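worker-03 picked up job from queue 'complexes'. Input manifest follows; two sequence lines, order preserved.
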Amino acid sequence: MTNTILPPAGERDVIAPVQVQGTVVKSKWLHSLLTFLVVFGPGLIVMVADNDAGAVSTYSQAGAQYGTHLLWIVLLLLPVTYFIQEMVVRLGIATGQGHAAMIYQRFGKWWGLFSLVDLELVNFLTLVTEFAAIDLALSMMGVNPRIGVPLSAVALVLITLTGSYRRWERTVVFLCMLDLAWFYIAFAMKPALGVALRDTIIPSMPRGGITADLTFLVIAIVGTTVAPWQLFFQQSCIADKKLRFSDVRWARLDTFMGACITVTVAGCMMLAGNASHIHGFNFTDPAQMAADIGTFAGPAMRMLILVMMINAAILGTTAISLSSAWAYGEVRGWPHSLQLPFSKAKGFYIVYTLSVAAAAGLVLIPRAPLQLIILGVQVLAGVLLPSAIIFLQLLLNDKELLGNYANKPWNNWVNWTIIIVLFGLSLVLAAQVAAPNLFPTGH
Amino acid sequence: MATMLLNKLDAQQMANDHRWVVIHPLDDAPEEKVDTSALGPMTMTTSVRISLLSLRAYLIVMLLLVFYRVFCQAGFFGLHAS
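worker-03 finished. Artifact:
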């Protein structure tokens, strides 16, 4: 049905009629709800994909080693992750461009290339850990990883090759919704909810005080909750979806809901780790944890945790590979949109496919140094995150670029506090790398 | 509630008529954004410039340190770091 009403004669010369496709509703409330639903996506995806395979491992290890004592850190990370990603929302909507393009254009070639190379390197290493987790989970399920890993890689490539952003988004939002199964897993473990709630609200220190293990685990928790790829991913995703200035508040709500879900799911992973510890199991990896939990919660629970581990890795892989492909396309000036078919954005899709294929292939190589790669990812991400956020902060204070969307003084206070804390943790990590015996071991 | 093709201006005027239009961002008319390529590099104060240079030095040193430690762990230098 086409509406052909044109503006009054005087206005016709000034503004050419532009046809758009929309849904007419008769309630303001319904209009708000539907507008939110069409904007909804990038915020949820970036946050839920943040709970990737590495996060499942880190949070469940934290629960297995320290019970519910570190839940307050996860809660503390809710505003941190929200405020950082909210800046990306404003930047993406105001410029309609990705983060890599912004750094390249506003800070010059050196920083542009440094950010790109650093992003591609850390992303690739992270992708290897995602496929290593898929490999581990499939082996525990009795599926041959030599068949399962390549199949996962093919599926990951196919969901992006449809030439439709909406189709990709719907598929990934569905996978994000599956992540809610962690709530069921956590409650099935029958946790002491009062204790968990107390440890979430009131900061407490595990028995044994500050040790090297605890320090590294805290840095790993922070590093896994706030990762550099997230900045690049959400900004490019917003640019690809062509969000408008009027969508800012809905995109903020989308991001906030995503942050709440990711933090709560992280808490659920800790509770699962805690349950395995209470039943006398030592944590080695999440797949083994699933097997351990299966001995007292049943084989269905074992299978569910393994499936969720694979889902986390799949979500992480698609988001991280896309952040690499978008960033590369932006810097090279290639067409880079999920709305484009393969024939019109070959470079973009090839970077995505190569990232996925190379990481999956590396995992299948016998005796590949996976442990070393995991260590490298954690350390590199920890070292590079504060600098990525400093660029974000500088861009958000760029009035020429953002006008009214630039940071307000209170934004700056919050963000500089976050940057100082992250730099502090990065320096602790640096000290630990330089002098490994700095902190007492054991707990 | 019906999905239809309509004029962007009509969509904006419908609110006065107690009718609202929901348009998916990908179906909407392109919005004018800031022309970032015309802006060029960001103007920076001397303190910001010095801070960024320090950050560059810090990152280079840290990356070298990380790679050294990773290669030590891998036994590239004939020893395993503690």
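worker-03 released lock.
Residues 1-14 of chain A have pLDDT under 50 and may be disordered.
Residues 42-434 of chain A form a domain with the Hydantoin permease fold (CATH 1.10.4160.10).
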